[in-house]
Design brief:
The protein is mainly β. The protein has helices at residues 3-13, 142-147, 166-174, 369-375, 477-482, 492-498, 505-512, 558-570; strands spanning 21-33, 40-45, 54-57, 61-68, 77-80, 106-112, 117-123, 134-140, 152-161, 191-194, 200-203, 209-216, 222-227, 232-237, 240-247, 249-252, 257-263, 272-279, 293-299, 338-349, 352-356, 392-395, 400-407, 413-417, 422-427, 445-447, 449-452, 457-463, 468-474, 485-490. The protein has 3 domains: 3-148, Immunoglobulin-like (Sandwich); 152-323, Immunoglobulin-like (Sandwich), CATH 2.60.40.420; 338-512, Sandwich (Immunoglobulin-like), CATH 2.60.40.420. The structure holds 2-acetamido-2-deoxy-beta-D-glucopyranose (NAG) (3 copies) and copper (II) ion.
Length: 572
């Protein structure tokens, strides 16, 4: 590699003098859409769905004026993977860095586009994004893209799609009718989409290279992606450029992104299919009639006609992302100064099943955690002020934080950290980490969302160099609703210095409209922040999680149904 090439990523990260402001005006409202032929209400922007692509160059300022015209739901938007350095109040999770934007109100998001790469934006309010409020976000690094020698680039979102709506489904999922004892099953999607439709076509010229930005926007399912007759060269994951690595198949979990290069064949005689197919791992059973795959077409010439779809029962040999090497060569971070150990822990409570990652299942507090950090002075260093149910971990500036995550569940879970990407030092399948640090890679794979395998463990490291309040959670939206979340409060005293005038006016305004306090500890106690008796306590779950309870599938419980299906398959 030439020196120039080594310097490019550095130069690209410095906001150039030509950095511009990219402005969007969004009116968020209910519209109708039928991406798989089934018409249903979805959350649209400016009267349309699919949603617009957010696009900027690294270093630009992105400004989104968002008006909530939903009428019946609050909202808030997260810019998945963006670091939000100096602007954590723009990160979006409702009840954490802001109050929800109530119906009839507006809120302006403004932040610097950083880092570059393939991202997405999505609602971070009560299980809302699978109802449509999610879209791709591309932050270009023109210098890096030039090194790829591509003819063109395409966005390829993959998502699972429900016919029912999240309010009601969330309530049912968390209800006493669906305890683990009763199956604890996540609702199974009705379709899988590519770019929010059924068949996507990418035009390809012989011998030319194309960058395909694969972005998973799913609520539950991971997807296998394969291109017939064409290898993929993986060049970036979650915005982190990697040494180009060839593969036939990738498995992309909820919220992950893979940037891959496809090279056109020199002498094509036909068009080729590609496929995005459900990994049914998280499905309790595969419903009869569920179409597992969605087809795409690499089109050299319309005259060649439609290719035969790529149909496979399984996808052995998919790329192990642990083996990828970041192009910037960032070495293994030094020994941890703070180690946090967590268990993925699904438990039945009397109200229904919940999932803990820290000490208890996450439950939002009365005061958004960021506002507690900004208004409690020196007490902000004491995790107690944030309330036990936020699973708060206070980090010192510059800490090397090591997360050891034990997945006690027999399903896989993709874990996401806001405000950072992390190094992945170890990942085990079906057994805990053995504590051996000698096997840590010298240049570990880095990304912002990584899958913990069923009954396996993860060891992650990141540097606390971004003062803020950042969530770490499973990205399966059902599990967010169950409480599989912890909160990092990173360098709170430095954070307070970033907001010398306190909480910005527009943030206070949307809280005040809803009577939500914006000062003091988790209960809004400003006099004695260490008195947390009025905060939300463990097991004080919301009795009405999201919308009115819908009826479970008639006549049988999920687990019973699964057993019937298994029995039917076993009998000859
Ligand atoms: C959607 O899928 C669920 C779960 O399999 C099923 O109960 C429901 O009938 C499906 N809805 C439609 C309209 O196909
Ligand atoms: C799992 O969560 C339950 C309920 O919060 C708790 O009592 C139990 O100790 C947790 N178990 C582990 C291994 O973390
Ligand atoms: C809000 O209204 C939409 C459109 O009618 C509906 O689909 C959605 O379920 C409603 N939300 C709640 C929380 O009831
Ligand atoms: Cu999960």
């Amino acid at each position: 590699m030439t020196l120039a090439l080594l310097l490019l990523p550095l130069l690209a990260s410095i906001p150039s003098s030509i950095a511009k402001v990219v402005t969007y005006n969004w009116d968020i409202s209910w519209v109708h859409a039928a991406p798989d032929g089934f018409d249903r209400p979805v959350i649209g922007i400016n009267g349309k769905w699919p949603l617009p692509k957010v696009e900027a160059n690294v270093g630009d300022t992105i400004v989104v004026h968002a008006t909530n015209s939903l009428g019946n739901e609050t909202t808030g938007i997260h810019w998945h993977g963006q670091f939000q350095t100096g602007s954590v109040n723009m990160d979006g999770p409702v009840g954490v860095t802001q109050c929800g934007i109530p119906p009839g109100s507006s809120f302006t998001y403004s932040f610097q586009a950083n880092p570059a790469g393939s991202y997405w934006y999505h609602s971070h309010a009560s299980g809302q994004y699978p109802d449509g409020l999610r879209g791709p976000m591309i932050i270009h690094d023109k210098a890096w893209e030039a090194t790829l020698k591509i003819e063109d680039q395409y966005v390829m979102t993959v998502s699972d799609w429900y016919h029912d709506q999240m309010p009601g489904m969330v309530h049912y999922y968390l209800s006493a009718q669906n305890t683990i004892d009763h199956g604890g099953a996540e609702p199974i999607p009705n379709a899988t989409l590519i770019n929010d439709k059924q068949t996507e076509t990418f035009k390809i010229k012989p011998g030319k290279k194309y960058l395909i930005r694969i972005i998973s926007m799913t609520a539950l399912a991971a997807h296998y992606v394969q291109f017939d007759g064409h290898k993929m060269e993986v060049v970036a994951i979650d915005g982190v450029p990697v040494k180009s690595t060839p593969t036939d198949v990738i498995l992309v979990s909820s919220a992950q992104r893979y940037d891959v290069i496809i090279t056109g064949l020199r002498n094509p005689k036909k068009n080729y299919a590609f496929v995005s197919q459900f990994d049914p791992d998280m499905f309790d059973f595969v419903p009869e009639g569920l179409v597992m795959a969605n087809d795409g077409i690499l089109e050299y010439d319309p005259a060649f006609g439609k290719p035969t779809p790529l149909r496979k029962d399984s996808f052995p040999g998919f790329l192990d992302d642990f083996t990828l090497v970041p192009l910037d060569g960032q070495p293994l971070l030094g020994n941890p100064t703070q180690t946090v150990t967590m268990n993925v822990n699904f438990t039945d409570f009397s109200v229904g099943a919940r999932a803990g990652l820290g000490k208890t299942p996450y439950i939002g507090q009365k005061v958004p955690t960021l506002f507690t950090a900004l208004t409690t002075g020196q007490n902000a260093k004491n995790p107690k002020v944030y309330g036990e149910t936020t699973n708060p971990y206070v980090l010192n500036k510059g800490d090397i934080v090591q997360i050891v995550l034990n997945n006690l569940d027999d399903g896989g879970h993709p874990f996401h950290l806001h405000g950072h990407n992390f190094q992945v030092l170890a990942r085990t399948t079906t057994q805990p980490w053995d504590g051996n640090t000698a096997t840590f890679p010298k240049v570990p794979m880095r990304r912002d969302t990584v899958k913990a395998y069923a009954s396996g463990a993860l060891v992650l490291r990141f540097k606390a160099d971004n003062p803020g309040v950042f969530l770490f959670h499973c990205h399966i939206d059902w599990h967010v609703e169950s409480g599989l979340t912890v909160t990092f409060i990173e360098a709170p005293c430095d954070l307070q210095k970033q907001f010398p005038n306190g909480i910005p006016h527009q943030q206070k305004a949307i809280c005040q409209k809803q009577g939500i306090p914006t000062e003091g500890n988790c209960a809004g106690n400003t006099r004695n922040p260490l008195d947390t008796s009025k905060c939300v306590q463990p097991e004080q779950f919301d009795p009405n999680p999201y919308g009115a309870l819908i009826n479970p599938p008639k006549g049988r419980r999920m687990r019973d149904f699964a057993r019937e299906v298994a029995a039917a398959q076993a009998s000859p």
